[in-house]
Specification:
Layout: E1 5-11, E2 15-22, E3 27-34, H1 37-45, E4 51-56, H2 61-68, E5 74-78, H3 93-105, H4 120-149, H5 165-170, H6 175-206, H7 210-215, H8 223-233, H9 242-248, E6 253-258, E7 261-264, E8 267-270, E9 275-280, H10 286-299, H11 305-314, H12 319-340
Parallel strand pairs: 1-4, 4-5
Antiparallel strand pairs: 1-2, 2-3, 6-9, 7-8
Helix pairs in contact: 4-6, 4-8, 6-8, 9-12, 10-12, 11-12
Length: 353
């Protein structure tokens, strides 16, 4: 019976450094190949026995995952933010590949989900829309910063309107600063129609997905938020419980404790009030967090969520925590109706999350 082998791949644009270890941790191969489909397939097919492969999530990871997933027993695309052990000891391509192989053999890597074929086009369109939206926001911030340099107050969004542009530019006396502002206005003029095109293409594509129609029955989840959820989550069965979705979305409360024990009568005893700090988990999908927190921000002032939030505040819960609780409720409802295939029912909103 052939023994399992574990391959770690340190992927770069031109080359990929590979290390393979056996079930006992013995290095049986170290090499470098071109980051090309033919070279990688030839390397994988040259190895015998069940092969488990890992590499970090990078720009090329989706392509590489598709190339080798049908050729090996297991592919784990791991999160670089969780690989703290890679920072220990020597740092070079061979050492990184070897450490990845060892971590995979020890079962210490957590894989990143790669979705189904059916949502790939939607994923790309959502990513394009988010990129253009981010570019617009950065341009707007830079534009206001120019006026702030001169002590000019720019309340609201009037500074971005074409009808008021000449009035605002006239306030910039220094020629170089005025030129910078004109360039940023030009960039804004180009980004706006592109962002609209991206939005229309994304909405047209998301209409093909039944899940989007279900999610849009939830108040505050419109076309854009529903499209983002379907593109990122792909399938609700990735999350067995709502707690897993909360953690993935940055809505889970984590506790960091220290000095939990003290010595009494020569024996270690747990303190009644150990030193602890609480907060939301930071290692999350920020787009998911924006969707649920944004929905909670708008929904707290409108029914059916307004009554829910008021009930929380009447019980003494602070406004910030009530908003977080509403975001968690919306996330839990999203997961529930997606799995059940049923539209949103406001009568079930009062059930405990």
């Amino acid at each position: 019976m052939k023994r399992d082998q574990y391959m770690g791949m340190d992927v770069h644009q031109a080359t990929t450094v590979v290390a393979v270890v056996d079930a006992d941790g013995k290095v049986i191969l170290e090499t470098a190949v071109a980051t090309k489909e033919s070279s990688i397939i030839r390397l994988v097919e040259s190895l015998s026995g069940p092969l488990h492969v890992t590499f970090e999530e990078t720009t090329q990871s989706a392509w590489l995952y598709d190339v080798i997933r049908s050729l090996v027993a297991e592919v784990v695309v791991c999160d670089p933010r969780r690989n703290e052990l890679l920072r220990e000891g020597s740092k070079n391509d061979k050492a990184d590949a070897r450490k990845l192989a060892e971590l995979l053999r020890a079962g210490m890597l957590r894989g990143i989900y790669h979705g189904h074929e059916g949502t790939r086009r939607l994923k790309q369109l959502v990513r394009g829309y988010q990129t253009l939206s981010g570019d617009m926001q950065r341009t707007m911030v830079r534009l206001k910063a120019i006026y702030r340099e001169c002590g000019i107050v720019t309340p609201g969004r009037g500074v971005y309107q074409e009808q008021q542009r000449e009035q605002w530019l006239a306030k910039l006396v220094e020629p170089g600063r005025r030129q910078r502002a004109e360039w940023l206005y030009g960039q804004l003029d180009h980004l706006r129609p592109l962002r609209q095109q991206a939005k229309h293409a994304m909405v047209a594509e998301c209409r093909r997905h039944r899940a989007v129609g279900l999610l849009r029955t939830i108040p505050q989840l419109g076309w854009i938020r529903a499209a983002v959820l379907v593109a990122i989550i792909d399938t609700p069965y990735r999350f067995r419980t709502r707690h897993q979705l909360w953690s993935y979305s940055g809505l889970a409360v984590v506790t960091h404790m220290s000095s939990e024990y003290e010595i009494r009568d020569g024996r270690p005893v747990r303190r009644r009030k150990p030193i602890a700090t609480r907060g939301l988990n930071r290692n999350c999908n920020r787009h998911m967090k924006e969707v649920f927190m944004g929905a909670a921000t708008g929904g707290r002032h409108r029914e059916p969520f307004q009554s829910f939030v008021q009930g929380l505040e009447e019980r003494g819960i602070r406004k910030e925590m009530a908003k977080l609780t509403l975001a968690r409720k919306i996330a839990a409802v999203t997961l529930s109706i997606w799995k059940k295939g049923e539209p949103f029912d406001p009568k079930k909103l009062t059930k405990t999350t």
